[in-house]
Amino acid sequence: MTLDPRDLVAHKRAGKPLSEEQIDAFVSGYVAGEVTEAQAAALLSAIFVLGMESAELDHWTRAMLHSGTQLRWDLERPVVDKHSTGGVGDKASLVLAPALAACGVAVPMISGRGLGHTGGTLDKLESIPGLSTELGVNELKRIVKEVGCVIAAQTKDLVPADRGLYALRDATGLVEALPLIASSILSKKLAEGLDALVLDVKFGDGAFLPDVAQGEELARTMLAIAERFGLSARVLHTSMEQPLGHAVGHALEVDECWQVMRAEGPEDLRELVLSLGAELLDAVRFVRDLEQGRELVAASLADGRAAEVFVAMVEALGGDADPLSWPRARQVDLMTSPASGVLDLTSCRAIGRAVVALGGGRKGAGDRIDPRVGVRWMRRIGDVVRAGDLVAEIHHEGLGLEAARAELEGALAFDTGREPAPLVRARYG
Ligand code: URA
User: Fold this and answer.
1) Is residue 154 very low, low, confident or very high in pLDDT (cuts 50, 70, 90)?
2) What is the mean pLDDT of the chain?
3) Phi then psi for 258, rounded to 5 degrees?
4) Which is nearest to 112 in space by CA: 82, 68, 145?
5) How far is Cα 242 from Cα 360, in angstroms, rounded to an integer?
6) Which of 395, 407, 99 is nearest to 252 (CA)?
7) Is residue 144 predicted with pLDDT exceeding 70?
8) Deepest in the core among 62, 139, 186, 357, taking most CB within 10 A?
9) 259 CB less than 6 Å from ligand 1?
10) CA dist., res. 10 & res. 25, Å (int)
11) Once rounded to an integer, what is the mean pLDDT over residues 35-49?
12) What radius of gyration, in Å, describes the C-alpha atoms of the chain?
């Protein structure tokens, strides 16, 4: 590295924006192992506190993007993807990717693993026996070409700078900085060579950024980067005040997605898939308007084409597509309502924590998860219940049951008068 990383840290800490040359030198030096983790953490920490100007943010995003391979496509179809900031029971990707592929667009969906109270799409899919999402670039492209979609892990050549820097941010408490989040997400999505992107930014207690205003700012920051890089992008700002669907826990969520692809399953999950799918089909002018986009996605769920693509994707990833082979917990305990009244959920995050307590989540990056366990939360905020009515099923293997029950019971409230937020509170872009 031609520049001394300590000079960059001092420059940023003095409140001056980093130049393109400084950023390129830092990011390439980091990937080459010439910048130490301590130096990188010092710079990230200064960015965390001081933020980034828009030109600086573009240079940062571009340097991350150029740290590895970028996908190029020679398909006849538009290439689209969705990214969610994640939440409790957020499984929409597992339905959306095959549904869009069934509509005729290509979806190379690079996803992440779970950490903390939220589960990861890759871990959910990998609850299917035999299935692996760790692919090389050629394999990933082959599956997209043959099946229409793939859900896969970030390969080692795609944005390697983000791999390292994200792990470092996670280890040093530097994740929640809007410019770092926006550039981390956008650099990966830009590397996918997309024609359009939809971002599902979550708000509410179950979300990674619960605050509505912060979610709006993240949405605006990501849209501005996408626009400056020429990527067509839209954002839906959606509720995580309560779980999406009923199922929270890996195999339970895959099963619930399978139901939606069989024209059954919970209405909110189906609704979100239609809304996100319609935005993408509309963005690539595949349809006349959003309404026609919704109809196209809905038809792929109703007539079994999305399910067929899902089966083909699972098999291409080495998995057993027979739902009877998917893992299930051996014990199911029921939780009933302790009182009568209008039900509220004061903490959606508590349901995620309950699943972690049952063994279905990671406390650290290397932890193993039990894909069988989870919670089926059967109620919506505002439901009228009577004492003794079913509120939740707890699918468990004996571990952590008391802690999980305490989390769930602690999150229940009655007659608070709170109105639930709409599933989609705003769209941008
Ligand atoms: N997801 C990402 O990919 N990056 C972040 O920084 C935060 C969430």
Assistant:
1) confident
2) 96
3) -60, -40
4) 82
5) 19
6) 395
7) yes
8) 186
9) no
10) 15
11) 97
12) 22
Nearest one of 332, 256, 249, 273 to 107, comparing CA atoms: 273
At 90, is the secondary structure helix, strand, or coil? Answer: coil
Question: For strand 331-336 and strand 384-385, is the pairing parallel, antiparallel, or unpaired?
Answer: unpaired
- H/E segment holding residue 109: strand 107-111
Domains and CATH numbers, the chain: 5-50 (1.20.970.10), 80-324 (3.40.1030.10), 328-414 (3.90.1170.30)
Contact 82, 93 (CB under 8 A): yes
User: Does the beta carbon of 181 lie inside 6 Å of ligand 1?
Assistant: yes
Angle at alpha carbon of residue 353, lines to 41 and 162, rounded to 5°: 30
Q: Which of 62, 188, 250, 376 is catalytic?
A: 188
Residues 6+ apart with CB under 8 A from 258: 307, 310, 323
Output the CA 187–ligand 1 centroid distance in Å: 10
Mapped onto helix, strand or coil, the DSSP state of residue 223 is: helix
CB of 48 shorter than 6 A to ligand 1: no
Q: Rounded to an integer, what distance in angstroms lies between the CA atom of residue 284 and that of residue 196? A: 6
- Report which of 409, 105, 54 is spatially closest to residue 281, judged by C-alpha positions: 105
Gap between the Cα atoms of 97 and 108, Å rounded: 8
Is the whole model's pTM more than 0.90, yes or no? Answer: yes
199 C-alpha to center of ligand 1: Å?
A: 12
Q: Is 83 a catalytic residue?
A: yes
CB atoms within 10 A of CB 316: 18
Q: Of the candidates 73, 72, 71, 78, which has an alpha carbon nearest to the alpha carbon of residue 282?
A: 78
Residue keyed to tokens 């980091």:
30
How many whole angstroms from 117 Cα to the centroid of ligand 1? Answer: 15
Copy the structure tokens of residue 94: 């597992």
Structure tokens at 97: 């990717």
Per-residue DSSP letters for 14-53?
TTPPPPHHHHHHHHHHHHTT-S-HHHHHHHHHHHHHH---
Structure tokens of 346? 């004061």
pLDDT above 80 (res 122): yes
**Do residues 76 and 284 lie in contact, with contact meaning Cβ atoms separated by under 8 Å?**
no
